[in-house]
Design brief:
Elements (H helix, E strand, L loop, with lengths): L1 H23 L7 H17 L23 E3 L9 E2 L2 H15 L6 E7 L2 E8 L2 E7 L5 E3 L2 H4 L18 E10 L1 H13 L8 H9 L4 H5 L3 E12 L6 H10 L9 E3 L2 H14 L7 E8 L5 H4 L9 E5 L4 E13 L5 E12 L2 E7 L3 H7 L2 E2 L2 E7 L3 E7 L9 E2 L13 E2 L8 E2 L5 H12 L11 H9 L14 H5 L6 H14 L4 H7 L7 H11 L2 H6 L2 H5 L6 H10 L3 H12 L21 E5 L7 H10 L3 E3 L8 E4 L5 H9 L2 E3 L1 H9 L2
Parallel strand pairs: 2-11, 21-22, 21-23, 23-24
Antiparallel strand pairs: 1-6, 3-9, 3-10, 4-5, 4-7, 7-8, 10-11, 12-13, 12-16, 13-14, 15-18, 16-17, 19-20
Length: about 675
């Protein structure tokens, strides 16, 4: 028993450390496979010794039956909302009120990004996660403990927990990452479900799930920026508070500003606006707080808001343009999606000429008609979307839109499944479905077949040369060269690209197969756990559900895909053509020149794609992570680098431009 208890505690601490490195620092030090083995060992030991299971064990993040409802919990200290300002003049007026209340008392400001998410309060007692409650009406909120425990960046036990205060109530914002939001909406549309309007709505809906297993499958994260009830620790400044939260292993904003006065705060607001698209989360402004917490009692609160803090809201990035037409796309799973064809307009720094309209119910709800003047924005700064119609600009010539009753590609009857909002083409031979599949299979993040662009895919399918991905590997130079605008040299390059794809990493093939819900990151995890395609195909549901970051829905999708005879036939044919189905060990090469060094890539490189640069670094023994920390060895900065460059300079991390990076790669 003593040995088991000691090993359980050792495993818990190791897993906590690796969770923090992966989800907070974004600098993992072990592979997903090694992590899964640690977690599996802990699970096995806890099954043998159930009396040793504790609430803060990493195995307790997801568990139990769905709730019947949320318990209402009163906040020990009310969660006040911030007053908003919308202009620099109003911002200065806030500063004037603070100075009037404090007189000659010196003070400074602390500025942070304003995250557009869902406010939450998490209570730790002696370093152990106890409860999580939504803001609610500010006086009381819903107990969403089980759902918050599914967020991997939330520690169930604080780092340095032995010195943690008796009570630490931390407050912050739950959000959905912008890239995760885009993938989630894409998946929902493939399933025929209503897409979420924006990342905040998606995060709020995820926290309201009574079944935490559903919440666990959503790409939620959190940033903590304040404290509520605290016993056993004091913070003289807000800066000290944030540093202490980081010390305890809690995720805080990746960028903050300490400002000596209002002029410095306004400069920080302007700087934040220039880099706001670089954050993983959506922000809608900035929050400025008096830094000296000892002055908060003197400043006090209004009925709803503290007098020591204020929010500055940026103007939403929208633009008005003309809706020229509505076309219908057929996706890889057969879902028909209406698309707005727009008069080109610049939104959030990008020229937008097309925007999603999601489905016919959305079009009807917003009363969108062809010829309308419409307002466009990027939903979650990722997907262009039509927000509303300028009804005052209508002339009477606008035309209502109606979804087609037949597939616009193959002319098969379209159907709407019970409980879905989407119309589908269910003809598996539909060229649109096939073309989307071939594009997905050959894409850079999948099999990376050089030279196989959209136009060539169209020709290959339309000319009957390709009816599934397997057919790509039977193409000849003569067949390709005979196509329009394709010469012998281009055909030879394509065939070389197809041949080279046979030697790709296993995870690329897993992703390329088009398994519903399986993205590139999930594919890499599956490669690390199972090691071969045969082992993945043979995996049972319990094995799949046990994989780190694979939930019940994804596991069921994988399991079902490999029980479909047609899919297995495709895989057998790909094997016959010599495609790699085993793990190649594409991680950092041991003994390489860059072994032990961690790189971060930012901006656009002219000599490499991001994937190519990553592979070059790994081939020399280095590793690549997505965010900058003190442990980062080097940041490679291409054109138009984002906030990662500024953070590297702030932390004193070495920065290489593209020329220096090439010299590093080519050095003897």
């Amino acid at each position: 028993m003593v040995d088991a208890q000691a090993r359980i505690e050792e495993l818990r601490e190791l897993i906590r450390q690796h969770n923090h490195r992966y989800y907070v620092d974004a600098s993992p030090t072990i592979s997903d496979r090694e992590y899964d083995l640690l977690l599996r060992e802990l699970e096995d030991l806890e099954k043998k010794h159930p009396q040793l299971v504790t609430s803060d064990s990493p195995t307790q993040r997801i568990g139990g039956e769905p709730l019947n409802g949320f318990e209402t919990v009163a906040h020990n200290i009310p969660m006040l909302s911030l007053s908003n300002t919308y202009s620099k003049d109003e911002f200065r007026e806030f500063d004037g009120r603070v100075r009037k209340l404090l007189g000659d008392t010196p003070f400074s400001y602390f500025l942070e990004p304003k995250i557009d998410g869902v406010a939450i309060s998490i209570r730790y007692e002696r370093g152990v996660f106890v409860r999580a409650v939504t803001r609610g009406d500010g006086i009381k909120g819903d107990d969403v403990t089980l759902n918050i425990k599914t967020i991997k960046s939330v520690p169930l036990r604080l780092q340095s927990s032995k010195t943690a205060p008796a009570v630490l109530e931390v407050r912050g914002e739950v959000f959905m990452r912008k890239d995760g939001f885009a993938r989630l909406n894409e998946t929902r549309q493939e399933q025929g479900l209503e897409p979420f309007a924006n990342p905040r709505n998606a995060a709020a809906g995820s926290l309201k799930q009574l079944d935490p297993r559903i919440t666990a499958e959503r790409p939620l994260d959190i940033v903590l920026y304040a404290v509520g009830s605290v016993q056993g620790v004091e913070f003289s400044t807000h800066e000290d508070c944030i540093l202490s939260l980081r010390h305890f292993g809690l995720p805080t904003s990746p960028r903050t500003w300490k400002c000596a006065d209002i002029d410095a705060a306004i400069a920080a607001i302007d700087e934040l606006e220039t880099i706001k698209h670089d954050f993983a989360f959506e922000i809608d402004g900035a929050v400025m707080k008096v830094n000296e917490r000892t002055l908060y009692d003197d400043l006090g609160n209004t009925a709803k808001s503290p007098r020591w803090a204020v929010a500055y809201k940026y103007e939403p990035e929208q633009a008005e343009t003309i809706l020229r037409d509505i076309t219908v796309q057929v996706g890889r799973t057969g879902v028909l999606t209406p698309v707005a064809e727009l008069e080109p307009v610049v939104v959030s720094g990008s020229t937008i000429s097309r925007a999603t309209l999601h489905n016919e119910e959305e079009i009807a709800r917003k009363d969108i008609r062809i010829g309308d003047r419409v307002v466009v924005e990027k939903a979650g700064e990722v997907i262009p979307a039509v927000v509303r119609v300028n009804l005052d600009a209508r002339t009477g010539d606008e035309k209502p839109f109606q979804m087609p009753s037949e597939c616009p590609v193959c002319e098969s009857k379209v159907v709407k499944r019970e409980g879905e909002v989407a119309w589908r083409c269910e003809n598996l031979q539909c060229p649109a479905l096939l073309k989307q599949w071939i594009r997905h299979f050959a894409a850079r993040g999948a099999m990376d077949i050089d030279g196989l662009g959209d136009v060539l895919v169209e020709q290959l399918v339309d000319n009957g040369l390709v009816s599934n991905p397997v057919d790509l590997y039977s193409l000849t130079v003569e067949q390709v060269a005979a196509l329009e605008r394709m010469g012998t040299k281009s055909a030879e390059n394509l065939i070389k690209g197809i041949e080279a794809s046979k030697r790709r990493d296993l995870w690329r093939l897993i992703f390329a197969l088009g398994i519903r819900h399986v993205g590139s990151r999930s594919a890499q995890t599956l490669e690390g756990v199972f090691g071969s395609l045969d082992a993945l195909i043979a995996a049972e549901m319990d094995q799949l559900e046990a994989v780190h970051d694979v939930g019940a829905v994804v596991a069921q999708s994988i399991h079902s895909h490999f029980r479909e005879p047609h899919n297995l036939e495709i895989i057998r044919a790909l094997k016959d053509h010599g495609l790699n189905t085993e793990r190649l060990g594409s991680g950092p090469v041991e003994g390489g020149r860059l072994e032990g060094r961690t790189f971060v890539l930012t901006g656009t490189l002219s000599s490499f794609t991001r994937d190519q640069a990553t592979e070059r670094i790994r081939s020399l023994g280095g590793s690549v992570t997505s965010s900058v920390s003190k442990k980062t060895s080097c940041v490679v900065a291409g054109e138009s680098p984002g906030s990662k460059l500024a953070k590297a300079q702030k932390l004193g991390v070495e920065v290489l431009d593209e020329a220096a990076f090439i010299r590093l790669l080519e050095a003897e």
